[in-house]
Specification:
The complex is a heterodimer of chains A (354) and B (441). By secondary structure, chain A is mostly helical. Chain A has a domain at 21-260. In chain A, 72% of the residues lie in helices and 3% in strands. Chain A contains 14 helices and 4 strands. The mean pLDDT of chain A is 89. In chain B, 56% of the residues are buried. The radius of gyration of chain B is 22 Å and the shape is globular. The longest helix of chain B has 24 residues, at 318-341. Classes of the chains: A mainly alpha (354), B alpha/beta (441). Chains A and B meet through helix 2, helix 3, strand 4, helix 12 and helix 13 of A and helix 1, strand 2, helix 3, helix 4 and helix 6 of B.
């Protein structure tokens, strides 16, 4: 950005291996966290929490999960909402049947169950690639749709097939108000982002990336495809499963299998494509873009005081949304994260570019 | 991480804009309108929304508001999607001087999602003829009002009707009834009751789900051709209804043996099939098609002044009328609450009292101009739905003809089911029941 890392020498291994090696980045991140945790709850309205920030945080988590698989390991999946639904229904059943469990434990267990299912559906990736794998993952989507709609046990024999959850309680803290939900989700997201960051820059992440770049070469230098691909599926499904549980418990509160349908899977995929494949920052950008843009477009005519029927406004919003996606993909196929990186490069030379 | 900055800037901008449009503390009652004029269900969503909005306009134009309190409203497009509906709910719940009066989402899925929020927000949700069947129990579902009947009522009435046709409910033994339903909470609601009745009368129930949005039903109707059920109950919405009728024509299943719920018996459902749908029956509750005093007022005060929402010719269609009645019941709830709290803008909690003490009798219906369009409704803290009565109307190829019989659901069967289901919900959500006797005192 508009600072340089000149003069920051790394004199030992610890400082060389830091997550954020540049001082300014550390300061910036610290300030950002203080702002997000401390300042945001003070001035943001409930509507913004519930309609923008909460879905943004949860979908970011899901996008990170999908990015691990698609962006880092190169295995395409267009059925990731399936693992969200596995996470959500697993959490619902755990919370219902074992009410003494702490919600955090429920969350982790739901993630683990989703990971197991993810591994199962990841097995075909050992043999097939690309478009064929995409179709195989699509099977996961339709399978879970069918499973949760037809097997009554998962929905506790609810007559309508819709389940609803009890409010979350953590060590006596009732996560009830929008601000509390936001803080809870932010906490979860920060922890998961740090873990993901360390995974992708560690040996596992390097194995994934080598798989993505050229699997034969990776195998030759001693990376086992079974291990690399299945861990990517497992970690990715774990993240997405946790996100699904949060989507159900914190955002929706009551849901039916339709809440995790194919369009959610595609939205997740759009997020990482628009945000940037193989970039954690891109997951944040993509989720923000997909969550905020339709809502903003929907309300723009209202703010401008233009009298417009809601039908027209919503048709216009989908049209603009669609063309923006196409525009972005043509102008910057590497996503918003790349755009951000270019901006940083430019600012470095500003105001005297060569 | 850095994306948050942009995100927050956006949210700050929204907050800023939101605050500038805050309405002055006026004598206004805000009605949020969740509607769907786009998507697969738009053909049914549009007439309903037109009726709903038109009635609010009429009350303002004819009476100058509810007892002098002007109605304001804002529409929000849900597209029948649950997540969009929740966003609309959050967007509109705080508007107006006293917040949203009440919500009528016209979607069972959205109803399920906002029911959870109603406890904290204290805003009533009217689901006239849809929503959760167990929400009749006002002691658990403190904010839901399934006025006029639930799907359990509807299913019960249909079984009674076919039983009558067979010459007694005991004659249903050994018969086959197929339920062709929209595979969503809406379509699944009646199953519990139909199974209960199947146990009592010994008919066989075939469950045939149709996936959203219901344009692909070949497999479903193949099963009907193989199994040859004696009756088909249709629980569809939007384009699914007309598709089902087309498939029935294609497979040669007699339309006379098909019975739709009250959401499967409007003009957009049969019109695409036209003459071929002749003989198809559906439940009709509260508002059949046609025009009465209220429609004359509507034309005089709203449409002749160029304020109408829809087309003049569409006034009086089944779903338009249902929109009218739904809006009317909300407005009457507010009017009832004015008696207790005074003629001023009311909060959702105050409006709930009005809805819990609704007493729309025959005289009131006549006065409102709804004579012949609805039956009396009265509610209490314990019973949030009131009696549910309906008749069967039949499509004669051109219009709907209402049959002579009125049906009422059998409370002997429903009550224990509602109680058990509400109890389950209360334990799942850790809700303590309201004590109605105490609140009254």
């Amino acid at each position: 950005m508009f600072y340089r890392e000149n003069g920051q020498f790394k004199s030992n291994y610890a400082s060389d291996q830091q997550m954020l090696p540049i001082l300014q980045d550390r300061v910036f991140m610290g300030l950002l966290l203080v702002f997000a945790f401390g300042a945001v709850p003070l001035f943001v309205s409930d509507y913004v929490f519930l309609s923008l920030l909460i879905p943004f945080l949860i979908l970011t988590l899901a996008a990170i999960g999908l990015n691990i698989l698609v962006g880092y390991c190169g295995q395409i999946s267009i059925g990731h909402a399936a693992f969200m639904s596995v996470g959500a229904y697993a959490a619902y059943n755990l919370a219902l049947r074992l009410p003494q469990l702490n919600f955090l434990v429920v969350l982790v267990l739901a993630g683990l169950i989703a990971a197991a299912v993810g591994i199962l559906f990841g097995i075909p990736s050992l043999r097939i690639k690309g478009l064929y794998l995409a179709v195989a993952t699509l099977a996961a989507q339709f399978f879970t749709d069918w499973l949760f709609a037809r097997v009554k046990w998962f929905t506790n024999y609810s007559s309508s097939g819709s389940v609803s959850t009890a409010p979350i309680e953590l060590f006596g803290w009732k996560v009830d108000s929008p601000a509390e939900k936001y803080l809870f989700l932010l906490g979860v997201l920060v922890v998961f982002t740090v873990v993901a960051k360390n995974l992708v820059r560690g040996h596992i992440g390097r194995a994934w990336m080598s798989m993505r770049d050229m699997d034969v070469a990776a195998e030759v230098i001693g990376i086992r495809p079974v291990y690399a691909k299945l861990t990517a599926f497992a970690v990715s499904s774990f993240y997405v499963g946790v996100a699904g549980a949060l989507w159900g418990f914190v955002y929706l509160g009551a849901w039916e299998p339709l809440a995790f349908n194919l369009s959610l899977s595609l939205n997740l995929l759009f997020m990482i494509i628009i945000g940037g494949m193989g970039s954690l920052l891109g997951s944040y950008f993509g989720a923000a873009f997909i969550v905020a843009l339709p809502i903003l477009l929907d309300q723009v005519p209202n703010w401008l005081g233009v009298e417009m029927s809601t039908a027209l406004a919503s048709h216009l919003a989908s049209m603009i949304f669609g063309s923006l996606i196409v525009f972005f993909l043509i102008v910057e196929p590497h996503g918003l994260a790349r755009l951000w990186a270019i901006g940083k490069e430019k600012l470095r030379l500003w105001p005297f570019p060569h | 991480m850095k994306a948050k900055i942009a995100m927050l800037a956006v949210s700050a901008a929204i907050a800023a804009i939101g605050s500038t449009t805050v309405l002055a503390q006026a004598k206004e009652q805000f009605f949020p309108v969740l509607s769907y004029r786009t998507g697969a269900y738009a053909p049914n969503g549009i007439p309903f929304a037109n009726g709903y909005v038109d009635y609010l306009k009429l009350v303002n134009a004819r009476d100058g508001g509810i007892d002098g309190v002007k109605i304001t409203f804002e529409e929000c497009e849900t597209g029948y999607a649950t997540d969009k509906g929740v966003e609309c709910y959050e967007r509109l719940k705080g508007k107006g001087p006293t917040g949203a009066t009440l919500f009528q989402p016209l979607s069972t899925g959205i109803t399920f999602a906002v029911t959870d929020k109603s406890f904290a927000d204290k805003i009533p949700i009217i689901t006239a003829g849809y929503g959760r069947a167990d929400s009749v129990d006002g002691t658990v579902f403190g904010w839901n009002f399934p006025l006029g009947g639930t799907y359990w009522d509807a299913a019960d009435m249909l079984v009674q009707h076919v039983g009558k046709k067979e010459g007694g409910l005991d004659k249903l033994k050994g018969k086959k009834i197929a339920l062709v339903y929209h595979d969503s909470p809406y379509g699944k609601e009646p199953i519990a009751l139909l199974q209960e009745r199947a146990k009592m009368h010994g008919y066989e129930l075939l469950l045939l789900p149709v996936t959203h949005p219901g344009v692909e039903q070949k497999a479903t109707w193949l099963q009907i051709r193989q199994q040859r059920p004696d009756y088909v109950f249709l629980w569809g919405w939007g384009v699914m209804n007309s598709t089902s009728l087309k498939e029935a024509v294609a497979t040669g299943y007699p339309r006379e043996k098909m019975y739709g719920v009250w959401w499967s018996g409007a003009e957009p459902d049969v019109a695409p099939v036209g003459e071929a749908a002749k003989g198809y029956n559906a439940l009709v509750f509260l508002a059949p098609a046609g025009q009465g005093q209220v429609h004359k007022d509507m034309i005089k005060y709203v449409y002749d002044k160029g304020q109408g929402t829809g087309k003049k010719e569409e006034i009086g269609e089944v779903l338009y009328n249902r929109g009218l009645v739904s809006a009317m019941m909300g407005v009457e709830g507010v009017r009832r609450a004015h008696i207790k709290y005074g003629k001023k803008p009311l909060t959702g909690e105050q409006v709930r009292w009005g809805l819990e003490n609704l007493a729309i009798d025959k005289a009131a219906i006549k006065k409102l101009g709804f004579d012949g369009f609805m039956l009396p409704v009265s509610t209490s803290c314990v019973n949030h739905s009131g009696e549910s009565t309906a008749s069967i109307h039949t499509w004669d190829g051109k219009k709907w003809v209402v049959g002579p019989d009125h049906y009422a659901s059998d409370q002997q069967i429903l009550k224990p089911m509602i109680r058990a289901s509400a109890e389950k919900y209360a334990t799942e959500k850790k809700i303590t029941r309201r004590d109605c006797a105490k609140e009254a005192g």
